[in-house]
Write the structure tokens for this entry.
Amino acid sequence: MLQTDLQTKQHVYKQPGQTKRFIKQWDIQLMVIPALLFIFVFNYIPMYGVLMSFQDYSIFKGFMHSPWVGFKHFEMFFNAPEFWVVMRNTLVISLLKLGIGFPAPIVLALMLNEINNRTFKRIIQTVSYLPHFLSWVIVSGFVISMLSTDNGSLNMLLESVNLIKEPINFLSLPEYFWAILVTTGVWKEIGFASIVYLAAIAGINPHLYEAASIDGASRVRQIVTITIPSIMPVVVVFSILAIGNLLNAGFEDILLLAGNPVLRDVSDVIDTYVYRLGIQNSRFSYATAAGLFKAIISVGLLAGANYLARRSGNSLW
């Protein structure tokens, strides 16, 4: 009874406290307004464009006078011969990026945390961060040059150790494309993505390691029993976001690395399909329907992942 009364009193005094704190921090709260305006103008206002997916949109008639056609473009997308190829490529590339690209920064962060030489650790961190700041144009040019049959470093290396007798044109063979794409993505982002996990590791109480060391736990044992459980909330939150972006298989990297039309059957994902039909072929309504389909599935995946993560107490909402 006494506890209930205390909770009631806390609830009664909680709201005025928050209001007073909000008023007291009015100058700090004003700093949020530009960010909210930016999101509203560039993320919410353009959403009216999804109306095109339910119209035979004409740029000369506009939204108001273009004829409404219901789900016609969705049905065309589902019945298109490219639908299953595009969905297969999107899911396979996304799952490969999720299965390999997501744990890679965690492993790198755990390895960097075990390095005691600060100079060597900083060199490794700087080298691993650098590719993130390069555009995909530069990165793809580097990859194409490295895999080239004309003095490409990979072909020269394989020939020097007698693994191949003549250069292989890797970017013209579909069986190598998914591996090249995923490897390039991991190399580009592994260092920058590991920053969050390094920050989470830095927040772990060092007394836990001291106590484990006194008890005779090895470094591997300390990683398994202390480090990984301590950073698990961060891992869960980022895994929810990664699952929500499962259908975002990529755009710039695929567009630049899959320049050879021979790779179309293994490289065409929803985003490149929308770009090719919407921009290059001017089928705006059809491309918008395909993009809206991807957005709805992504929201469902995000909600489902958050629902599963809620059981561990680390959900986003």
Observations:
- The chain has a mean pLDDT of 85.
- The chain has 17 helices and no strands.
